[in-house]
Amino acid sequence: MSTMECTWPEKISDDRKRAINELLRGRSFTKQLRSVLVGGHQQASAPDLLEKISRSFTDTLSILSSGEADEVVSQIPASGQLYSPGWDGRRSEESGESGKSSTKDRRGCYKRRKNSQSWIRITPNFHDDSYAWRKYGQKVILNAKHQRSYYRCTHKHDQGCMATKQVQMTEDEPPMYKTTYHGQHSCKSMLKSSQIMLETSTARDSSILLSFESNNEDDSNPFFSSFPLIKQEEEIPSDGQEVTDNNHTKNNNSSSSDYLLSMELTTFESNLGSDHGDVLSGVNSSCTDSTHSLGDMMMDFEDVFIDLEC
DNA sequence: AATATTTGACCGAC
DNA sequence: GTCGGTCAAATATT
């Protein structure tokens, strides 16, 4: 039985309106924030505005995700499991009748993501993207020296967040890790705005956002979807084979793993402008001085919003 | 006890 | 059949 057949035009168009509405709100907040930061106006506090912007992104993504899926991916914490069967969905265990042949009958469980968006990121050392990840698998990959690790968002169950990532060491001489992100975080941000400011303004990193593949109309960069949740640390086992995530807020001393938000914004924007979603690369990555600050960043934000509108 | 990781099995795609 | 992605029981960690 195929689960992806029903699309509800009315619902989707309604969702689109809501999404556009959310984006407009986000743009408005962004403008306010810019005037606060640049012009020094104090109509509203920057942290408050940042929080609103973050919320706007999250809500928009949630709306768009629900339009793509058969059922709404709610952000309301669910007591049970709340999956979106959209791109990666599966029913967890037997639904109703249990105890078939083997211990757990998982037939029909897996749905390969096909048109899901993905972003590839190459980083030296491990890369801390500040989300809370939970490792759920590790595989040997053909023609690859190292195993690939699979992570899902820690809040998959409590918030229905469907973001996943894969991390694979591609080189070990200068250690290089390729991280592929799938899906977007719909989990709520719980990080304080001040921390966000701190992180973005102190970001310095030599990581490269390699590609931005988009097959769906509701794509957006996962780094936009919401602000970082919990600091995360990945560490390399002694054999250098694979990385392991840790969700705890251990005082992360790897400042090099912060990502350059402004760079990615620019990348995102240029990708939006192009008419294809294939791999784009060659982003240079060495603008690390702190003068490249929120002012510029907000400009990019605004442009992105404008592009999204039409 | 609760939460995270490991790892073999399972599944769909090719 | 192989391969890569995911599940979930067992195990480890906090």
UniProtKB/TrEMBL annotation:
SMART domains: WRKY. It comes from the Eukaryota. SUPFAM superfamilies: WRKY DNA-binding domain. Keywords: DNA-binding, Nucleus, Transcription, Transcription regulation. It is found in: Nucleus. The keyword Thylakoid does not apply. Pfam families: WRKY. This is WRKY domain-containing protein. GO terms for cellular component: nucleus. Residues 241-250 have a biased composition (Polar residues). GO terms for molecular function: DNA-binding transcription factor activity; sequence-specific DNA binding.
